[in-house]
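ping. complex inputs:
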Amino acid sequence: MRYRPEHKAEIHRGIVKEASRRVRAEGLYGAAVSTVMRDSGLTHGGFYKHFASKDDLLVESLHDGFAEIVGILARAAEQARPGQAWKAIVKTYLRPEMCDYPERGCPLPALAPELARADPAMRAKFVGELVKYRDRMLPFMPGRRAADKERAFFAIFSTMIGATALSRILPAQTRARVLASARDFLLRSF
Amino acid sequence: MRYRPEHKAEIHRGIVKEASRRVRAEGLYGAAVSTVMRDSGLTHGGFYKHFASKDDLLVESLHDGFAEIVGILARAAEQARPGQAWKAIVKTYLRPEMCDYPERGCPLPALAPELARADPAMRAKFVGELVKYRDRMLPFMPGRRAADKERAFFAIFSTMIGATALSRILPAQTRARVLASARDFLLRSF
DNA sequence: GTCATAGGATGATGTATATCATCCTATGGA
DNA sequence: TCCATAGGATGATATACATCATCCTATGAC
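pong. complex structure:
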């Protein structure tokens, strides 16, 4: 055997990390195989030693992106006083830096339309990620019954996703107004 | 002269209409020159008799898409009782058909991330469209002062854009729950 | 009817890309 | 030290696309 056994896994993770960043920053088409490999310190040729297809890379990189944001939000929620967890999520999600650095943020404001247009097989995987996302956030949502919490999740995340996606089109000044409007609106509701 | 003078303008409009539909249905990359021309009943070669570049077509087709949705929403608002106009806008925007047929809907849930990633010159034009969009909707928004109306516009449209973008990823049943959650949430607020 | 011309068609060029066959080489076990 | 091999590199192939030079033809002015 040539390398330490963990070597391949590390390289694999590195490629996924790089793709995860690129995909959020530049869209599904922004993560070309050769570019991702070059920025991972490799050449394009070795790619298919790690992934069966480019779609596989996209699925893995989306998984990584969702895991990252869910981790950030869950941590914020767990550090908040009980009952205030959802407010901590809102404040964290709508921070200006979240908006300014899409490569480190939630994949949804960066990619939702492209995910919606993906072919059914891939979309099913994205739906799976969304279900995990929702299930992880649900306990922190306002409302008594499970159905109320789900409605709150949909409403709150719709607003946050839309505000982020919209504000990223706009120049800095207007951008801040959109984020603040959405945040104040959510915090005043429920 | 070969054709009636209006002929060229009609063809031009037809190409823009077709591109406008395609772009909303399949993204900025979905509107390839040859495809759009074929579906307009032409061949790809004549394209540059109508547009200086593909970017020009994109800008025109976005303008068309924004004009369409603004018209639909303004008409709904004007037919509502005064003070209820914003509710008519919410109900119209979040209709299931709006979500199911992106090619006839608002460009924002379909394209916001791609617009945000466009080069500065194009993005500036999209920002111009957004300003017109906002200015047209502002009179219908809830709130007394202009600043309140703008905040309401940002909050309401963020929620609607996010809900539409999110629900388009999801299967029909969940999709309906997202739309309903967002709609009820908005109608209960303000 | 003739013909100049603008709208439209054909086809070429160059670039970007996914995919994969093949080659190369560093590694660790013998 | 030597070698089998898996990880990685090179390069080929095929496709999709934007762009544009050039050609063709229907039209309406004469």
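Chain B is about 75% helix and 0% strand.
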